[in-house]
Design goal:
By secondary structure, the chain is an alpha+beta fold. It has one domain: Lipocalin, CATH 2.40.128.280. It has 2 helices and 9 strands; from the N terminus they run αββαβββββββ. An 8-stranded antiparallel barrel has the order 1-3-4-5-6-7-8-9. A hairpin with a 2-residue loop joins β3 and β4.
């Protein structure tokens, strides 16, 4: 009886340790992406609900990220908030909660990709399901942003 209990206890410990290690690895990947996102980003492309935004508006837009906080500056407004990532998926999941701006107090579900100096994210409007791909087609309400990292000035 004791041997059986010991085997069950050992099995539970091994399972818990494995689950903890997996969660820790996922958390490390998320932290790595958040650290890689830190900095200043220049908007290079912006589409919303099937509409391509003007080059003039794109050129006037950018974003800064520090930790899990962002400030998105657009031609006519500034949005501030926090974000969470799930980097273990491809594309990764991102949840953005605005504390100031157009979607104040709301959470937008999105997907993202981060590679070298490019950050791409597609968000569904508040209350809608997370997009499965980077698709801002007409009548979806989805917003697609593509940013390039601004180079540090010498």
């Amino acid at each position: 009886m004791r041997v059986c209990a010991l085997l069950v206890l050992t099995g539970a410990f091994v399972f818990a340790a494995g689950a903890f290690a997996l969660h820790a690895a996922e958390d490390d990947k998320d932290k790595g992406d958040r650290a890689s996102l830190e900095g200043t980003w220049k908007l290079v492309s912006w589409q919303e609900d099937g509409k391509v935004m003007s080059e003039a508006d794109v050129k006037k837009s950018g974003m800064t990220i520090k930790g899990d906080r962002f400030t998105l500056t657009m031609p006519d407004a500034t949005t501030e908030g926090t974000f969470k990532t799930v980097a273990t998926k491809k594309p990764g999941d991102i949840d953005v909660t605005s504390v100031k701006g157009r979607f104040e107090g709301k959470t937008l579900l999105g997907v993202y990709e981060l590679s070298d100096d490019t950050y791409k994210a597609c968000f569904a409007p508040p209350g809608k399901d997370r997009p499965k791909e980077f698709s801002p087609e007409k009548e979806s309400g989805n917003i697609l942003f593509v940013f390039k990292r601004e180079k540090a000035k010498p």
